[in-house]
Amino acid sequence: MSHAPWLERSWPEYMRKHLEYPEMALHEILERNARKIPDKTFTIFMGKKLTFKQVNDMADQLASALKDLGIQKGDRVSIYMPNTPYWPIVMFGILKVGGIAVATNPLYTPSELRFQFNDAKVKIVVVLDHPQMYSRVKKVQDETPVEHVIYANLKPMIPKAKAIIGRLLGKIPESKNKDPKDLDFIKIIKNKEPLIEKPSINPKEDVAVLVYTGGTTGDPKGAMLTHFNLIANLHQMNEVVWPKVEPGNASILGALPFFHSFGLSVALLFAAFYGLQIVIIPDPRGGNPPFTDILEAIHQYKPVYFHGVPTLYNQLLYHPHIDKYDLSSLEACLSGAAPLPLELMKKWEEKTKSRIVEGYGMTETSPVASANPLKPDTKPGRKIGSIGLPLPDTFMKVVDVDEPTKELPPGEIGEIAIKGPQVMKGYWNRSEENARVLTSDGYLLTGDIGYMDEDGYFYITDRKKDMIIASGYKVYPRDVEEVLFKHEAIQSAAVIGVPDPKRGETVKAFVVLKPEYRGKITEEDIRNFCRKHLAPYKIPQHIEFRENLPVSVVGKVLRRVLKEEEEKNFSK
Fold this sequence. Notes:
Layout: H1 4-9, H2 28-36, E1 41-45, E2 48-51, H3 52-68, E3 76-80, H4 86-96, E4 100-104, H5 110-120, E5 122-128, H6 131-140, E6 148-152, H7 160-169, E7 183-184, H8 185-189, E8 207-212, E9 222-226, H9 227-240, E10 251-254, H10 261-274, E11 277-280, H11 292-301, H12 310-317, E12 332-335, H13 342-352, E13 355-361, E14 368-371, E15 389-390, E16 395-399, E17 414-419, E18 426-427, H14 431-437, E19 444-452, E20 458-463, E21 468-470, E22 473-475, H15 477-486, E23 490-500, E24 504-513, H16 523-531, E25 542-545, H17 559-571
Parallel strand pairs: 1-11, 3-4, 3-5, 4-8, 5-6, 6-7, 10-11, 12-13, 24-25
Antiparallel strand pairs: 1-2, 8-9, 9-18, 13-14, 14-15, 16-17, 17-19, 19-20, 21-22, 23-24
Helix pairs in contact: 2-3, 3-4, 5-6, 9-10, 12-13
């Protein structure tokens, strides 16, 4: 079946369908802006600003230091820290010396670090100088290939007055009793001459970043994202983004974690590529009450762009002091990583007057594969509930779940498959898994279930592994969750399948009520509401009220955790 008809029929007027992608090294996007807008601010962190030139110079010095420590082209270096100004310096420094940056979750435990460092054969770890993080690395170093540990202290990255106050009050924890063999980041780059001879990069073959997937179906897997994958995706996203701004004259909020592909590409790399100043938020839950730091950053620094996940937008909407903050600078918000409920979209736009659209992607697609148009008045425009149209030069199709070679027509539900310049090279050292998800004609089988409409817009109905089979009927959790979100008393909800002696599986809903409704709404109230909107087999047979739901570091509700809890309860 040809893709051409819908590509020709449905395309936003302000976007090009096909692009030219320069074959360049990823670090060149920083170097370009360090030349063009050297004195413009690149990073803002706790009030301290660094220019594009300053970040590039420090990355050059780090590259030289890494070479002296034995890093050669293709060697892996881990970045183990939350969002700080060190992140871009370290990542671009690794790339400049020809290394591969390994994005490491700052919440990883010693056992998770041990697995990743061994799996990627990490030679050097750059870790935040923080007691817990540093000690975790030291616990496992001798059981891994890690040769050097470089610790980065926060004090040089915040205003001097704040550093003094923070030190006096003990608010900037740092590791004590450091191993004398370990290296201080600032000391090893101080007075270092920049690396003059950089290794030659083959953008389409050489891996820039290893980003590990969540490991929901076994051990985490490192997605190999090449320089070209990431450069291509930046150019593709540039077509979607609206409004257009002049380099050096606009801000983006960096609240999504940089170790995750979503935060890495749509926030950090896009800022470096587009010439934006990025307001770095180390912990999106920060502040008192939680999430206040984000509201204060928007109020103070006036970002135009704020890309996030549904649970983050939801938390901000229900922040008790949201009306105290000026959010009028926001113009464009891209939501991803989880389904964006219709009611949440409406409420966010009413509150902020910004435009929010849903997009779709995954670690394996660098990460963005499709999006609704961000420009308000374009035709064709946004379709509510859709993940939008494929990005330029991206082919998406729906295939039979059991027979991936069979493409399905518009309207039929199956597995989404993606082909494009942003699709990963493969998983690190996972040949069997690569053969399972990458087809011979270059498509990635995503594991996501959905369909395409007659206009070429795609819709996700659920994850393949989350589908519930109740009495032989297929139930997609998102269908039920969308209905639950329409209930005026429900703040958030998640749906899973649980064992049932008669139906095989049945539907269970976990519900968080808005504070003013707690204790006033019953399970039967919610079931009665669902009966008006859902077929009988989709109505939750079990409803559990909770104070909160388990979420990942990017705010995605972890159905996997809820399932594990249910399995433990069922086995008792």
